[in-house]
Amino acid sequence: MHIVIIGGGFAGINLAKELTDQKGIEVTLVDKNNYNFFPPLIYQVATAFLEPSSISYPFRKFFAGKKNLQFRLGELQKVVPSENKIILNNGELHYDQLVFATGAETSYFGMENVKKNAIPMKTLNDAIEMRNALLKNLEKAAICKDIRKRRTLLTIVIAGGGPTGVEVSGMFAEMRKNILLKEYPELDTSVSNVYLVDGGDALLSPMSKESQQDTLNALTKLGVVVKLNTRVVDYKDDTVFFADGNTIQTKNLIWAAGVSAREFEGIPAESYGRGKRMATDAFNKVNGTENIYAIGDTSIQTNDPDFPGGHPQVAQVAIQQGINLAKNFKLMVQNKPLNPFKYNDKGSMAIIGKNKAVVDLPKPKMHFKGVFAWMIWLFIHLISLITYRNRLQTFYNWMIAYFSKDQSLRMIIRPEKRTKADA
C-alpha cells in the first residue's frame, strides 16, 4: 500500500512517524517546505526570543534511515481521483491512499487591504518577516524627529484574542519594559502602545471564564490596552479602522484573527464543510471519496457526539487523528475492522508572560494560573517539539531569556534580492 500524505504539520508528521518501518506500507510525505516546524512557538521566533532552527527540523534528516518513508518537495495543484494520482508543481505521484494534512491558512475575511498590509502569524516565513519588519521600524523610530510618525512606528496592534494574540501581546509588553529603552536610548521619551483587539466579548473564548479574566487582568497589568467587541474592518495608509468608527495609527498590524482551510481542484464541492474544511466520516475518510482522507485543521468531523460542530482546530486534535489513522492503515493491511476517531481533550493553555500563564484541564475540571501554569506550559511545549535537538536548543534559549530578561537574536537577516541574470 502506497500512502501519500500532503502536509507535514502536526497531523502529517505524526501519521508518518506511526507508520515507520511498517511492513506492507510505503509512505511519501509531500510538503512545500523541506522542514517541519512547531506553530505554537512561531511568535517567539517573530519576537527574536528563539531562532528558527529551534522550532524546525528538515524532513529528510528526520526520515533518514526509515526505509519505508520518503519525502517529496512540492506543492499540490490538482487531485485526479479517477486515476489515483496527484499533480504537483514539479511532477506527479500515484497513490493507493491519499491523506490531506494541509492545515489551515490565515483568513482575512475578504479584507484585501488587511491582507496586503498586515503582518500574518502562521508560518515560519511569516515570523521572520515580522521580526525584520518590527526591528526595521524600531531603527526608523530611533532617528525619526517627528513625534507623531515615531508613535506610528512604535505602536503595535494585534488583531485576535486567541492564544497567539495573547502570547504575542504579552511578549511585546515585556520587551517594551525590559529591552526597548535599554537598547534604544533615543526612544526614552516616546510613547509605544501595545493594543490587543478582538471582535468577541472575551479573550481566549474557548477557555474557562477564570482563564479569560486572569488573562485580561495580567495583560492589563503589563500595560497592554485590551479592546474587546472591537472588529477590524480595514487597514490602509498606516491606519487601522474599526467597525465602531474608531481608528489607530500604526505601522504594525499583526493579524492573528482567523484561519481557513484550502480547497483543492479535484475534490468534489460537496465534500467541503464549514470553513472550507473537508467533511469526513468517523474514520477521517473524506465524504464522497473512496480512498482520500483528511486529518487536522483541514478536516471537519461532525459525528463525534461530544463535538457535534466539529473538533477544535488545535494541535492535539491533529496529533491524535494522525495516530488513529496510522493505526487504521495498519488494520487495513491486515483486513481487520477500523477504529473510529474519538478525541481525548487534554485541556488548553496560554502563556501571558514571564511566570504568567493559564491552564484549563477538563478531567477533572481544574484551572491553574501563575507560575505553576507557566511551568506546565513550558514543559508541554518542550516535550512536543519534534526532536531532542529542538528541545535542548529551545530550553537553552529560554533559560537565557529567563535569567537575563533578554535575548541576543534581534538581527535583521534577509536574503539579498538577485536579478534573473544572477539566479
From TrEMBL:
Residues spanning the membrane: 371-388
Residues covered by the FAD/NAD(P)-binding domain: 1-322
Keywords: FAD, Flavoprotein, Membrane, NAD, Oxidoreductase, Transit peptide, Transmembrane, Transmembrane helix
Catalyzed reactions per annotation: a quinone + NADH + H(+) = a quinol + NAD(+)
Keyword field contains Transcription regulation: no
MF term (GO), any: NADH dehydrogenase (quinone) (non-electrogenic) activity
All copies of domain External alternative NADH-ubiquinone oxidoreductase-like C-terminal, residue ranges: 346-403
EC number(s) stated in the UniProt entry for this protein: 1.6.5.9
Recorded superkingdom: Bacteria
Signal peptide: none
Pfam short name (any one): NDH2_C
PANTHER family, alphabetized: EXTERNAL NADH-UBIQUINONE OXIDOREDUCTASE 1, MITOCHONDRIAL-RELATED (PTHR43706:SF47), NADH DEHYDROGENASE (PTHR43706)
Family per similarity comment: Belongs to the NADH dehydrogenase family.
Protein name (record): NADH:ubiquinone reductase (non-electrogenic)
